[in-house]
Amino acid sequence: MTDELQEHLNKGMYGTPKLKPDEQRKYLGTFRERVDLTVTFAQLNSEKYYPAIQKELEAHPEYRMTINGSVDQDQLSRLIQIANSANASFTCSSDLTFPHAASDLAVVIAASHQAIHTEIVDVALRYPLDNNAATVSAEKPSKHRFSLKNLFHKK
């Protein structure tokens, strides 16, 4: 049997093979290069990240929010309200192959048909919750600023 014939038979029996299936399962059906922001189930349990989701959807209403079907009903309704208020599209995917542990992704905000190559996609890294922010801003800024001019100019 030739390779072409075997490939044709395999497509008929099993369907067309997916490109990067593990990556698509992790990012709720999309490729990593299209992802703008991700939220895990553990992060979704915290009330602190919902404003970050809203801010991202308002900044990019052309992106689509994909919600893992294992998300709690209360969280799902809140995410739908956020998407509607931002005029953004959303999808709730109940694919049973998507993982649903605390460290797995519950929400993915991504471009629909193009690569955007966002480097930092985790909501905790992009929108850090720094409790020391008030302490740092209360300190006086240093009067001396580092500059390359200082290295090469005599004082």
TrEMBL record:
Query: What InterPro entries does the database record attribute to this sequence?
Result: DUF1694 (IPR012543), Ribosomal_eL30-like_sf (IPR029064)
Q: What is this protein called?
A: DUF1694 domain-containing protein
What species is this protein from? Ligilactobacillus araffinosus DSM 20653
